[in-house]
Amino acid sequence: MIKLGHIVYSNCFPVHAGILKGKIACPFPIVKGIPSELNRALVEGKIDVSPSSSIEYATNPGKYRILPGLSITSRNEVMSILLESRVPLDELTNKTVALTTASATSVVLLRVILELFIGVNPDFMLYEQGVEDPYEQAAAVLTIGDLAIQRTLSPRFPHTYDLGEIWHRQTGLPFVFALWQVNYKKNIEQDLGKLYDILMESKRYGMARLSELAGQHAVDYGIPAETLLRYWNLFSYDLGPEEQKGLLTYYGYAAELGAIDAVPELRFWGRQV
Questions:
Q1: CB atoms < 10 A from the CB of 272, how many?
Q2: pLDDT digits (tens, 9 = 90+) for 75-132
Q3: pTM of the model
Q4: DSSP code of residue 261
Q5: Cα 151 from Cα 153, distance rounded (Å)
Q6: What does DSSP say about strands 140-144 and 81-85: parallel, antiparallel, or unpaired?
Q7: Are the CB atoms for 56 and 39 separated by under 8 Å?
Q8: Does the CA dihedral 55-206-150-85 come out positive or negative?
């Protein structure tokens, strides 16, 4: 039986809401984790389908197929991918920037912004978000997910940058943070078809009830209901032509950085006839 990954951050909840609330029957086991954990489980075959970092797809070209019509994409600002800095971005050359290990996509996005858009070359360090405190060592700190929304910003870091907003201002495009990816094998085809129908039904359930769900689950995520609703409304959960254009543009910049070898072809899953 195939296993479905679920990102524990609130941005994934609208798509999986019907499943998680038991409103849409799902016979498949669900494995929860942060993006980096699900990336690892997916590539190792410990789960079969998951919303997974968009950079993961390009890092392992040819390994995955993409489920059509599903993504976690910021239209403009994103609220949950924040860089706090002691100095303006253009002053970060040779200064230490702390990168969370929780998300590979956001780390490469920050590198695109700093190295290609701004033209600075910081020194990078990694830290485990929620466990280690990098604020004494670093001139700037990247935080992602619900923790970024919950954080009380420090006066020692007076400059706060929303990476989705910077991306949109520079490119005019949405930014795709996650894709529903399949570590595909022919023997999962029948179950995959069933799961895809369940996911699309669960997404329809969630998107039709965002306000209600925000009120019900604000406490779970530690985010006020009105903030959670505003946050969810920043996203497109589709994967149409504009989202794909944004994704391929990101891959182009990632390849320019050397973070990936080349821009991959977007290979979508479709039911086998």
A1: 9
A2: 999 999 999 999 999 999 999 999 999 888 999 999 999 999 999 999 999 999 989 9
A3: 0.94
A4: S
A5: 6
A6: antiparallel
A7: yes
A8: positive
* Closest of 32, 65, 66, 63 to residue 176, by C-alpha: 66
Query: In this structure, is the dihedral angle defined by the CA atoms of residues 250, 161, 107 and 268, taken in order, positive or negative?
Result: negative
Three-state SS for 50? strand
Token match 């920037």: residue?
97
Q: Taken in order 211, 213, 215, 221, is the CA torsion positive or negative?
A: negative
Considering just the CA atoms, what is the radius of gyration of the chain in Å?
Answer: 18
- In this predicted model, what pLDDT tens digit does every residue of 32-51 receive, in sequence order? 998 889 999 999 999 999 99
| Alpha-carbon span 12 to 48, nearest angstrom | 17
CB atoms within 10 A of CB 236: 16
CA distance 266 to 245: 11
DSSP state of 268: B
Angle between helices 104-111 and 35-43 (to 10 degrees): 110
Residue 2's φ and ψ, nearest 5 degrees, are -70, 155
* C-alpha span between 267 and 21 (Å, rounded): 31
Residue 160 bridge partners (DSSP) = 84
First-to-last C-alpha distance (Å) of the chain: 21
The pLDDT of residue 169 is 98
Q: At what angle do helices 189-207 and 13-20 cross, to 10 degrees?
A: 100
Query: What ranges in 101-171 are assigned the alpha helix state H?
Result: 104-111, 146-150, 163-171
The residue count of the chain comes to 273
Six-digit token pair at 6? 């679920």
Q: What confidence score (pLDDT) does residue 9 get?
A: 94
Beta-carbon contacts of 162 under 8 Å, excluding residues fewer than 6 positions away, are: 77, 78, 79, 81, 82
